């Protein structure tokens, strides 16, 4: 849990994680352009992951493990209509694709529409960025 009395540290962590998400998104786009789909899938997932972690800090919920971040984010924001529930399968599919591309020996990334995945990832990161911009003074 984040120390509620350390607003400066909380804001710095939110900004750091959001910047990390944006950097991962940019890396995913560049890796895709250079025809490195497995690496692009990995960075796309991490863009979603770091954006979710940033917004969790905004609301004083700091978790570390991947499945806990994803589950907490879905429970707190997607199931409550804070964000559009269409992102639930996007996040879950990105997590599954990242795990498969990282750990399955003969994973074929061509089964995933990477252009669409990158667009979804970009939309998610922008949505989180907008939410943070509106709510950062309330943390």
Give me a quick take on this structure:
With 139 residues, this protein is mainly alpha-helical.
Task: Offer a few descriptive terms.
mainly alpha, Four Helix Bundle (Hemerythrin (Met), subunit A), globular
Task: Describe the protein.
35% of the residues are buried. This protein has five helices and no strands. The protein has a single domain (7-138), classed as Nucleotidyltransferases  domain 2 (Four Helix Bundle (Hemerythrin (Met), subunit A)), CATH 1.20.120. The longest helix is centred in the N-terminal third of the chain and has 27 residues, at 7-33. The protein is 73% helix and 0% strand. By secondary structure, it is mainly alpha-helical.
Major sheet details: none
**Helical proportion, percent range:** over 70%
If you compute it from the alpha carbons, what radius of gyration comes out, rounded to the nearest whole angstrom? 15 Å
The named CATH superfamily: Nucleotidyltransferases  domain 2
Look at the structure and give the mean pLDDT: 90
CATH topology: Four Helix Bundle (Hemerythrin (Met), subunit A)
**Class derived from helix and strand content:** mainly alpha
CATH class: Mainly Alpha
What is the global morphology? Answer: globular
Q: What's the architecture in CATH terms? A: Up-down Bundle
Number of domains: 1
Number of helices: 5
Taking pLDDT < 50 over at least 5 consecutive residues as the criterion, the unreliable ranges are: none
Distance between the termini: 13 Å
